[in-house]
Amino acid sequence: MPPTTKPAFTRPTSGQGRLHGAIARDLGTAIVSGRCPPGEILANEIEFSERLKVSRSAYREAIRILAAKGLVESRPRTGTRVLPMERWNLLDPDVLAWFFESEPSRVMVDGLFELRLIVEPAAAALAAKRRTTEQLTQMRKALNDMERLTLKTEAGQSADRDFHQALLIATGNPPLISLASTIGAGVRWTTHYKQRKRRLPPDPMPEHWRVYDAVAAGDAEEAHAAMEALVNHALAQTAGAMNER
Predict the structure, then answer these.
(1) What is the C-alpha separation between 147 and 210, in angstroms, rounded?
(2) Cβ contact 236:204 at 8 Å
């Protein structure tokens, strides 16, 4: 039987919900970072709860969270086993966040940006044809907030995420809209990562306003080109940050 792993655990200040969420986060981060590799058997609930002085129910709930995201599988007598990456729900915003808690793999980062390059330019073109006045107002507000707060703040990063999510919603395409939280999380966490590496762009606003102006003007071709340039620039910045490890 593979050896069990004992990932680090930071106990939250209070609350059972916070407790099982913290356990899931720390175990999830250990799994996606490779500290708990596929095939690893996690500590059982008795060992884990006694070692970290947490309730067995909190540990069980954390494992249920991880299982729902495809990271682990629990079976009687064999325990809880870490599943291979192809089983993970990589579009889950929590899973994306866990990747960026430490040093994400280049394969994962490249894959995330490939997804963005497939989805976001086409979404911008659709949004240029279908956006409503209210949706334009939401996008403009997000950019104004982003400009005022800057990407150096969490609120500014959230405004950036809100802009990208609002643009996908403006496509009016339900399957695309279902990707909004994933794309938003990708934007948010890559920006957070670049900030940690001090590789934020000097002024991200011109690229974002170019996308907005094209969508507002109903120019699908320009919206596609502007978003493609924005995502490619973000990829180059992220790759530069990763090269500084």
Answers:
(1) 14
(2) no
Residue length of the chain: 245
Asked if the 105-242 domain carries CATH number 3.40.50.1820, the reply is no
Give the pTM: 0.83
> How many other β-carbons are positioned within 10 Å of the β-carbon of residue 19?
20
Judged by DSSP in three states, 80 sits in strand
Burial of 209 by CB count in 10 Å (0-12 exposed, 13-18 middle, 19+ buried)? middle
Neighbour count for residue 36 (Cβ, 10 Å): 22
pLDDT tens digits for range 23-55? 999 999 999 999 999 999 998 888 888 887 888
The answer to whether residues 162 and 149 touch, using CB atoms and an 8 Å cutoff, is no
Domain residue extents for the chain: 16-87, 105-242
199 has pLDDT over 90? no
Q: Where are the alpha helices (DSSP H) in the chain?
A: 16-32, 45-52, 56-68, 93-99, 106-130, 133-149, 154-169, 174-177, 180-196, 205-217, 220-242
Name the residue among 184, 209, 199 with its Cα closest to residue 240. Answer: 199
The CATH fold assigned to 16-87 is Arc Repressor Mutant, subunit A (1.10.10)
| Same fold flag, 16-87 and 105-242 | no
Neighbours of 75 (CB within 10 A): 8
